[in-house]
């Protein structure tokens, strides 16, 4: 499964994978789902609602339908000068400030992505000539409470960026024993006066690079456990 929170991204990936709309998916108007095949791998691509609760709710249903591997392609705000707009982030640890993951694990449980998917994404990024930054990510339900104090504190701890889904997705992956890993494109910068790049060519081009990475991953056979 590839999931994203942008309809244009899912439609672009579906076209590249020659995937077609799934007629039995009950949410097809609101959250379109496409199915196809790359190499020997059956693949599905779906747009999910922004935020941890909706994302995890739909992932639960997809797992019940047989999905066992999830690659997320989304966006994040950067907390670090070394990660300007367009940088690709691979979250490998989580600061949990969303309300969904505690329903799966208590706060002391360490959440991380599937190591095979991390390696797969890194290799695919190398193949297209770009680098990714790995490190901790802050996930929050309250984007308008990303205060300067919190930003400064998490920046000092080496946290790369902030999004609204990753920690909950990693919790679900651990709980349901499915593979999950996100690739996030930096869409805005928070370490100085807020710089937003949504709707710019700069972000659009970086997202297209991330799409190429995802497509490379979809054609690779993952090791079986």
Overview of the structural elements:
This protein is α/β, with parallel strands linked by helices. It has one domain: Nucleoside phosphorylase domain (Rossmann fold). The chain contains 6 helices and 10 strands; from the N terminus they run βαβββαββαβαβαββα. Strands 5-8-7-6-9 form a 5-stranded mixed β-barrel. Helix 1 (7-16) packs across helix 6 (201-218). It starts with a strand and ends in a 7-residue tail after the last helix. 42% of the residues are buried. The model has no long low-confidence stretch (mean pLDDT 95).
What fraction strand?
25-35%
The residue-averaged pLDDT reads 95
| The number of domains | 1
Principal-axes geometry comes out as globular
Give a count of the beta strands, DSSP E runs of length 2 or more.
10
- Name given to the CATH architecture: 3-Layer(aba) Sandwich
Give the helix/strand layout.
Blueprint: E1 2-4, H1 7-16, E2 20-21, E3 33-38, E4 41-47, H2 52-64, E5 69-78, E6 88-97, H3 115-127, E7 132-140, H4 148-156, E8 161-163, H5 166-176, E9 179-189, E10 195-196, H6 201-218
Parallel strand pairs: 1-4, 1-5, 5-9, 6-7, 7-8
Antiparallel strand pairs: 2-3, 3-4, 5-8, 6-9, 9-10
